[in-house]
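Below sits the subject:

***
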Amino acid sequence: MDAIILQILNGLDKGSAYALIALGLTLIFGTLGVVNFAHGALFMIGAFCAVTLSKLFNLSFETLDPTKKDFLGNPLKVKTPYVQEWFGPDVGAWLIDWSVPLAILFSIPIMVAIGFVMERGLIKHFYKRPHADQILVTFGLAIVLQEIIKSNFGANPVPTPAPEVFRGSFDFGVLLGFDPNVIIYPYWRMVYFAFAAVIIGGVFAFLQFTTFGMVVRAGMADRATVGLLGINIDKRFTIMFGLAAAVAGLAGVMYAPINSPNYHMGMDFLVLSFVVVVVGGMGSLPGAVAAGFLLGILESFASMNEVKSVIPGIDQIIIYLVAIVILLARPRGLMGRKGVMED
């Protein structure tokens, strides 16, 4: 039972990332009808927003410390971060320690701006083009963004630690009545799941309970009719593209301490997240979220040694096997609209 609970927790962790990226993918497809293969790159850029802010906070200058001397008796050079010089030692140390959560505020305007530029500068020219053209151009854009990150940050992963208070592990099993040290789970992974739940809930609440969101949902269902009512639906869809980019970016920011950011992490998550979208149903927001958590949990269970000893390599292909089975039985996905992907 303890192993099952631990794998469910691991699955929720992976599923949170899948669901957040798939949510943004589905928002773009549902509003604009565009298959955006650059969406994984937005996740990567979000992670490197956290890296960038951490590096900025750690910029330092050297001074001579007369209280510390080398073996020859000369004062040693010490590095002092600029934020500690400007804001004081305590506040500066706090900013450095909490650079990842603070990168949420740092990344939102950056990701929204990138989303607007992508949509207005490139993707709007492919609205009426075949999906194959959309995939090719957005995949090419993803490669360009990936190489830009590689040239600026290098090819190696960049460790980006979580705040010190969240670097330990939590004895989750004690809460459920198990013996101590049976189910140990990292604090930050729990924070990530809670963060994902807040973001997902916020997006659904925005679409469900605001006038803007209601118009967008109406436009997703019947774009032409909404346009005839005198509403500039294209402008609203552009804003939704920026929102989708921000969601992907925030997912990347908070994932940075879990998996050190590297230039190909966007591609790693993109393929899996696109499978999640297809399984959940193209254009279905609830389907994307449900499929993200479902496939994350299945992948987690498939990675157990007991399972891999029976079916070697099953953890690498389980998501694709599930996708094949679901699409053969229900081509539009679990919650897809009738007629989508069924032609």
About this structure: The CA atoms of residues 12 and 315 lie 16 Å apart. DSSP finds 15 helices and four strands in the chain. The chain has a mean pLDDT of 84.
